[in-house]
Amino acid sequence: MKKYFVTGSYGQIGMDLIPAMLERYGKENVVATGRKKINPTFKELDVIYHRLDVRDEYGLRNLLVEYDIDIILHNASVLSATGEKNPQLAHSINFEGFYNVLEASRELNIEQLFVPSSIAAFGPTTPLVNTPNTTIMEPSSIYGISKVYIELMGSYYNKKYGLNFRSLRYPGVLSPEEPGGGTTDYAIWIFYEALKNMKYTCFLSADVTLPMMMMSDCLKSTFDLIEADDSKLKHRSFNVTGMSFNPEELANEINKYLPDFKIDYEPDFRDALARSWPQSLDDSVAREEWGWEPELPFEKMVPAMLDGVSERLGISYK
Ligand SMILES: NC(=O)c1ccc[n+]([C@@H]2O[C@H](COP(=O)([O-])OP(=O)(O)OC[C@H]3O[C@@H](n4cnc5c(N)ncnc54)[C@H](O)[C@@H]3O)[C@@H](O)[C@H]2O)c1
């Protein structure tokens, strides 16, 4: 069995990814790391956990050697909205932190390095409807620029050093877990506010359509890609998507379950960011090369989110 190493494990994705990895690969084969002290959920699951700031290159290497790691999932990142508030912090974590992981992977002959990219890697000059896998990428945010850097450096290390780098351009990922400061976060907070107050003020305009996927599909795409046969991969970074919708369409769908729910709009700086991103993605390259297929459509996502968030809040809605 291979040994897996995850950075940024306490994030929105990590909180679901780590338990799923324990089940899939066995708890002795998964090393979770993060900047914070171990949390009660991970303690209960008896996760192998170490505190690690990805900017600490020696700490990183020591752990990779100590556990004889084969595969790294590098999730630590500053997200889009937080990055725009502090571009210098985003640079140090998203560029320098990633570079530490990339170089350690090369020097220690790590078998595979997986790093999430994002729809934020695209920008206003990209064709925004059914965005192809290979197209113009001129992002306008520091977060998006870091994702293009990650994709290009990963591909360069693959060609130059044979590093088995793989990346997925996740759209907005939906789960009841509190999100970490991204622009697609509205599609999670809306469920919290709908259940608590029957009202949500959205920081995007009603008509801003973005691609999204449910966490179950995010994990499925991640496992499918990291386990894919390398000889089948012609690309290193892949579009993946589950659905596309705008805030108004989401509110209308929520109204089917909560008829009294109301939404209003106070767009802020995130509106311009979101408008520079794809409305929908063409994920045919992922489908062709490693058989990607999403499972959870929009209509099933809404009741799944309502169930998950209502359980977290202890508020029944049925
Ligand atoms: N959640 C989404 O909708 C989404 C969409 C596209 C791409 N992604 C990508 O997926 C990955 C995980 O995202 P997420 O939603 O879990 O993000 P998140 O913000 O919830 O989690 C990121 C984690 O990284 C940690 N971190 C930050 N700086 C660190 C450092 N210096 N050292 C170690 N850890 C550090 C944070 O503490 C946090 O736990 C990121 O690369 C993100 O860009 C996420």
Short description:
The protein has 318 residues and is α/β, with parallel strands linked by helices. It has helices spanning 14-25, 40-44, 57-66, 80-85, 87-107, 142-161, 186-197, 215-226, 247-255, 269-275, 284-290, 298-313; strands at 4-7, 30-34, 48-51, 71-74, 112-114, 117-118, 165-170, 172-174, 199-202, 210-214, 237-239, 243-245, 262-265.
Summarize model confidence as the mean pLDDT. Answer: 97
Structural class: alpha/beta
> What is the chain-wise order of helices and strands?
EHEHEHEHHEEHEEHEEHEEHEHHH
Identify low-pLDDT runs: none
Beta content comes to 15-25%
Radius of gyration: 19 Å
Q: What small molecules are bound in this structure? A: nicotinamide-adenine-dinucleotide
CATH architecture of the largest domain: 3-Layer(aba) Sandwich
Broad CATH class of the largest domain:
Alpha Beta
- Looking at CATH, which topology of the largest domain would you report? Rossmann fold
Number of helices: 12
Distance between the termini: 44 Å
CATH superfamily of the largest domain: NAD(P)-binding Rossmann-like Domain
